[in-house]
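>> received
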Amino acid sequence: MTSRLPTGASVAPPLPGRIDSATPATARAAPVPSVSPGKSPSEVAFALLVATIVLVPIAAGTVVWSAPGGDGDFNRRVTFQIFDLALVMTGCLRIAALLPRVLGDPARAVANVGRGAVRSALSLSITVLGVVAVIAFAVNPSPRGAELAARIGLGALVAQALIVASSQWLARVQAIIAATAAADAVLAIAQSAHGGPLGLRWLEFRGGLYPFGTSYAGRGGLTHPYHLAVLLEVGIAAAMLALRHSHRRLPWFVAIATCSAGLGVTYSRAAAIGVAATIVVLLLPRRARRDDPPHRVYLLAACALFAGIAATGLTMGNGWYARASTSTSLSSADSGRLDRAREAVDLIRDHPITGVGPGQYSIALAALGHDAPLPPHNIVLHAAAEAGVLAGAAIALIALLLARRYLWASRETAAAFVLLLPYFAFDAYPYVFPVGLFLSALWFGLLERARRA
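>> returned
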């Protein structure tokens, strides 16, 4: 798991953290939408992307490879999950859609890539990070590193598809993201009220729920409540970004409130910080843009966000009070994150140039004798430990440049950006776990499309 319970909190039976392989992945796969033969590869890719999103909350698949002793740890194994089948097909079709541009004039395509790599400080930083990561992988190759590279590549194709999507397909994808997240939020709320899984064989991960005071943290179909929180926040971001050009905004407000209500039963402090920051951005006075919707739209979005998390957080036990009461000191508030940071610094000190290898952070800790190796819960420290100090510096610079890029964009773009930031600063799910990497790609693609609109 990516997070530890605070000191003094009662502990539920530990979740195994493994994919439920009792039922073959093929038996659980949802049908892929049928597409007529006349559709272009790009249109088929979007249909498959929709299928990928719908399959995200189903935590089932198979273990392809694992490090010694790492079969039950997501961070020390390579997994192929149900959604990966649709994701790989989506990526292949996106490549097929892009190939004619490359093959039509290869020299021009190479020149465009070269110019794009150094066009701005942001693109140059991303290029440096990519080069450093390739070198780190060459020095420390591993199946985990290969998986990470493949998932980042597929994520880049997904983000690029959203950036160039037609308005019709963009609206469809936003609706599917919001609807999928809202459905999992309802499942999580039901789990929390029930005090455990509901017994929905294909839709739930087996194992007990984490207790916080008199409350239980729902997790929907995912393996951990904090993982669900990231899905719900991406759903909220998709709904907020759809408000600007939508003629019927009520469904988006309902999606925001429902996903926020789901956040209320995850008891994630990173999620609470993100929601608070988002509400501030939505309400903070700023210079209006010419195409901004009426101010009441942002006010209603903020109200929906607050009402959702308050409705479940205040009525379903004292879980949030328990979280607050165990956060009265630094040692309890950080849930072991300072220890995780010290572990990362030690690895960086021992491997400052090329790191321990992409995807191998937890494997390296296990080799040093750590019984329960966890990521450092900070993307800068994680990158520096896996690919060297230069990679960490590049990530830090990219984060600053993205903040400047999106905080000065439209109000809803800035709000969607700050919503997930705490998870990159204080957690590991969005940039380590398979589903987290895909959700991050969706988030970035939606942000960049909104900024360019």
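>> The first strand starts at residue 61 and ends at 66.
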